[in-house]
Amino acid sequence: QVQLVESGGGLVQPGGSLRLSCAASGRTFSSYAMGWFRQAPGKEREFAAFITRSLGTTDYADSVKGRFTISRDNAKNTVYLQMNRLKPEDTAVYYCAAAATIIALKKASAYDYWGQGTQVTVSS
């Protein structure tokens, strides 16, 4: 089993930047694809970004493409989400997730383990 703990959320002005971190416990971090999802109040949880295991292939939701960058450091058992040029509509709880599968990584159902989330608020 994998435990995930997010950090780095907070309050930032529009146009600003934040870097989220997700620290994983266990011995098999490198065996999992990692994803970031977000959920705003009253809305469904939505895909933001993923990164695969060996090749480190990345993909992003259209809403964050060009502004967010996902990366991972397997030696540190950590995945990151660098968020630039933040917008008020980016305000949400951001969740880190781990998936043993490589299929359908844009869907929340593909993921086996989830963190408890970190709040990101973008406001003037």
Please provide a written account of the structure.
The model has no long low-confidence stretch (mean pLDDT 94). The N and C termini lie far apart (40 Å). It contains no helices and eleven strands. The strands form two sheets. Strands 2, 4, 5, 6, 9, 10 and 11 form a seven-stranded mixed beta sheet that branches. A four-stranded antiparallel beta sheet has the order 1-3-8-7, with no helix packed on it. By secondary structure, the chain is mainly beta.
Q: Shape, please?
A: globular
Note the total helix count.
0
Q: What kind of sheet is the major sheet? A: 7 strands, mixed
What is the oligomer described by this structure? single chain
Average per-residue pLDDT, rounded, comes to 94
Helix content: under 10%
Summarize the entry for a quick read.
The protein is mostly beta strands and 124 residues long.
For the structure shown, list the relevant keywords.
124 residues, mainly beta, globular
